[in-house]
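Below is how a single chain appears once it has passed through the pipeline. First comes the sequence as given, then the structure the pipeline wrote out for it. We keep one example in the README because the format questions we get most often are answered faster by looking than by reading.
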Amino acid sequence: MSVLHVIDHPMIQHKLSIMRQKETGSKDFRQLLKEISILMGYEVTRDLPLTDIQIETPIGPMTASRVLGRKMAIVPILRAGLGMVDGLLDLVPVAKVGHIGLYRNETTHKPVVYYCKLPEDIQDRLVIVTDPMLATGGSSCDALAMLKERGVANVRLMCLVAAPEGIAKVQAEHPDVDIYVAAVDERLNDDAYIVPGLGDAGDRIFGTK
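Resulting structure:
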């Protein structure tokens, strides 16, 4: 069964509270999202396997640990998911990046696919799907299904703020995918926005409203 991980570290909650404020501008919003993504990334990658290697410090030899060759890919759901990529790349610079383009039909609130470009060996990688807002769960479920159709077996979903409705949908349709969030908010409103949420993450990242 899919496990929900709520990463409630004090520094994440502090930064998230600033992001939620309507007067926070795009520059600060983007920077805070990057910083939170780095902090969340530590937890998303907490169980990566390690191997022992022999190294020399300036004082002498020792047995040290390195990540055991786990190949990783970051796949943002466009466009808001892009805001979480740089933070994860700071943490794992060798990760490859794919892109899945989805937008929400404003009438039906259902996702529409318009772009998909993934690394050729995506099926061999641990994939972290990023999207700041897990609202209805439609976009996330479609993106996860697209990845599975391409042979991906090891995938995790990383979001900033989630609604209970979106969590329930992902867990029902993808019970093998763990979900990592910084906060679970109250509900969705009639326009399928998260309450209290932080508004449209894409607009706030790119300054389009």
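The CA atoms of residues 109 and 191 lie 8 Å apart.

See the next section for the split statistics.
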